[in-house]
Specification:
about 425 residues; alpha/beta; 6-stranded mixed β-sheet; about 25% strand; binds flavin-adenine dinucleotide
C-alpha cells in the first residue's frame, strides 16, 4: 500500500518505521524543516510506564479548582471562548471516576509495557544512541498525603505488570544520592527499575534517518491543508502550497493539531493542547546532579539526565495553541529544581521551552481505523498526551498490525475513538 503519515513527531516517525517494515511504500509529511521539531523536541525524556496515572481521577476536579488562577500551578485551566475547550473539559470530568481512572491506567500500562519492549528491541537492532540511561525511574514525594495517595496507584500498576515498588526515604536517597542534599524532606517514593530515560528528539531524528535509508520518503516544510476523499474513501492530502499527494491510506499523527485537520470532515477528536514547559540546564563540571530519572509527583515535574545537561519538565496549562513562555512558570520550574538539588543554583545557562501535549480526557491515545466512521483509508495515531515517547513504538506496532489485517499484540479496543 502507498501510505502517507502526517506528522514527523515521535509518533509519526515510529509509525513510518513500522509501516515500512511491513513493506508499505511510506511518505511522511511535516510542516517543519526536520523531525521532532514541535512537541517531541524537548520533553521530559522519560520512558515511563510507571507514569500511567491519568490526570483525570476522583481528586482532580477539586485540585484543578484549587489551582485555578495561580500562575505557577502545576495544572492550570484558563477559560477561553472556545467550545472545543469546554467540550474537552466536560469529557475530562466524565473520566474523573475511580472506575474510569482504573480502566485508563490498565490501558496505558498495557500499551506502555509493549511499547517499552518495542523501543528496547529497536535500540538493539539499530544500535541507536540518544543519551539513554537504563537506571529506572524514581517517583519521590515531599508531602506525606501525596505519598499515601500514590501507593494504591502503584499497586494497581503492579497488578497490570508495571513493577513500581514502594521505597522509604532512605532507600530513595540510596537510589539517587544527589537527593541527600534536598532542602525539602523526602518522605518516600516508588521505584520502577525497568523504566528508562533519554533524548526523545535525538531518538526521533535517528529513527527518521534509518527510516529514510530504508526507503521512507520525508517531505519537510510541507503544511497539510486538508484531505482528499471520494466516495467515502480518502485518496490523499492537499498541501498548503496548492500541490497534492495521493495514497491508498493516510495516517493522522499531527499531535495536538490532529483535530483541526479532521474537523472539516465532521469528525470531532477529543484532543486538546495541554501546554507543558521544560528547562534544559547545562551542567558545569563538578556540579552535583542526578543521573537516575526522577518524578517529583506532587509538583508534576520529571527530571532526566541527558549527557551534560539536565532536563526538567512538566506542568500543564489548558490555554489553546499558545506556546509563549510565561516567566512565572519558567521560574517556578527553576526554583523547585534548585530546592531539591541546591548545587544547581550554580548553573549559568538554562534553555526554556514549551510544547503542546496532545491531551485526551483520560490520557489514553487514539489508534483507530476511521473506516468505522465512514472514511475508508483514514487512520488515527494521536492523542498521546503526557506519554508520547513512552507509547510511540507500541502505538505504531498496534497501528501497523491493524493496517496489515493482523491481530495486534495487545487488545486494540481501549484505544479506539469512542
Ligand atoms: C513538557 C513536556 C514533557 C513531556 N515529557 C514526556 C516524557 O518524559 N515522556 C514521554 O513519553 N512523553 C512526554 N511528553 C509528551 C510527548 O512529548 C508527546 O506526547 C509527544 O511528543 C507527541 O508526539 P506527536 O508525534 O504525537 O506530536 P508532535 O511531536 O507535536 O508531532 C506532530 C507533528 O505534526 C506536525 N504538524 C502539525 N500540523 C501540521 C500541518 N497542518 N501540516 C504539516 N505538519 C503538521 C508538526 O510540525 C509536528 O512535527 C512531554 C510533553 C511535554 C510538553
Amino acid at each position: 500500500m502507498r501510505v502517507i503519515v502526517l506528522g514527523a513527531g515521535v509518533v509519526g516517525v515510529a509509525s513510518a518505521w513500522f509501516l515500512a517494515a511491513d513493506g508499505h511504500e511510506v511518505t511522511v509529511v511535516d510542516r517543519q524543516a526536520g523531525p521532532a521539531a514541535e512537541t517531541s523536541q524537548a520533553n521530559g525524556g522519560q520512558i515511563s510506564v510507571s507514569h500511567a496515572e491519568p490526570w483525570a481521577g476522583p481528586g482532580a476536579p477539586l485540585r484543578a479548582l484549587k489551582w485555578m488562577g495561580r500562575e505557577d500551578a502545576p495544572l492550570l485551566w484558563r477559560w477561553r471562548a472556545d467550545p472545543a475547550q469546554w467540550a474537552w473539559g466536560l469529557r475530562f470530568l466524565r473520566q474523573c471516576t475511580a472506575a474510569r481512572a482504573h480502566d485508563n491506567i490498565r490501558a496505558i500500562v498495557g500499551l506502555g509495557l509493549a511499547s517499552r519492549a518495542a523501543l528496547q528491541a529497536l535500540r538493539r537492532e539499530l544500535a541507536l544512541e540518544y543519551d539513554q540511561l537504563e537506571r529506572g525511574i524514581l517517583h519521590f514525594y515531599t508531602d506525606g498525603r501525596e505519598f499515601e495517595r500514590a501507593l494504591p496507584q502503584a499497586e494497581l500498576m503492579r497488578k497490570y505488570g508495571c513493577e513500581r515498588l514502594p521505597r522509604t526515604a532512605a532507600e530513595c536517597i540510596a537510589i539517587e544520592p544527589a537527593l541527600a542534599n534536598s532542602r525539602l524532606a523526602i518522605v518516600g517514593g516508588t521505584y520502577t527499575a525497568s523504566d528508562e530515560s533519554g533524548d526523545a528528539r535525538r531518538f526521533t531524528e535517528l529513527l527518521a534517518q534509518r527510516a529514510s535509508a530504508r526507503g521512507v520518503a520525508f517531505h519537510f516544510g510541507a503544511a497539510v491543508a486538508g484531505l482528499h476523499s471520494q466516495d467515502g474513501r480518502v485518496r490523499g492530502v492537499q498541501l498548503a502550497d496548492g500541490s497534492s499527494l495521493t495514497a491508498d491510506a493516510v495516517v493522522v499523527a499531527l499531535g495536538s493539531f490532529s483535530p483541526l485537520l479532521l474537523k472539516p470532515l465532521g469528525l470531532r477528536l477529543p484532543v486538546y493542547p495541554a501546554k507543558g514547559y521544560s528547562a534544559t540546564l547545562f551542567l558545569p563540571d563538578g556540579v552535583e546532579a542526578p543521573t537516575v530519572s526522577l518524578t517529583d509527583d506532587g509538583c508534576k515535574l520529571v527530571v532526566s539526565r541527558l549527557g551534560q545537561t539536565l532536563r526538567v519538565a512538566g506542568t500543564a496549562e489548558f490555554n489553546g495553541y499558545d506556546t509563549a513562555l510565561n516567566p512565572v512558570r519558567c521560574e517556578a520550574l527553576r526554583r523547585r529544581i534548585v530546592d531539591i538539588f541546591p548545587g544547581l543554583a550554580a548553573v549559568q545557562r538554562i534553555d526554556y521551552w514549551a510544547g503542546l501535549r496532545p491531551a485526551t480526557p483520560g490520557n489514553v491515545p487514539l489508534i483507530d481505523d476511521l473506516a468505522r466512521r465512514g472514511f475508508q483509508g483514514l487512520w488515527l495515531n494521536t492523542g498521546h498526551d503526557t506519554l508520547g515517547w513512552t507509547l510511540a513504538c507500541g502505538s505504531a506496532r498496534v497501528l501497523a498490525a491493524q493496517m496489515a489485517g493482523r491481530d495486534p499484540e495487545i487488545d486494540p479496543r481501549p484505544y479506539r475513538l469512542a
